[in-house]
Design brief:
The chain is an alpha+beta fold. The protein has two helices and six strands. Pfam families: DUF2218 (PF09981).
Length: about 100
Amino acid sequence: MSEEGATPATAHGFAHCEKPERYIQQLVSHWSHKMATSYDQESRVGAFPFSETENAVMTARPDGIAITLVTGERTRNVHMRGVIERHIDRFAFREAPLKYEWNEQ
């Protein structure tokens, strides 16, 4: 549940990279000790339930990672984008820093 007066925020992002599926799988494994992450091999989708009000879904595309991030409010959404970017860049160290494009809804 979001804080009183807070408006839920959704952002759609894209990270251009050469090995999107590999980076999502590594992130699923990395965060699995903190949350119930999952990865669907067939759809190439990783799910990251950060909390009851925050989650991210990452989909491997031929040219990068499509990201949908939902948080309880905008400030937190902007913060979590940075967390996601830093973590993906760690796994994509050979081609990092990646270029991220974000659009808010």
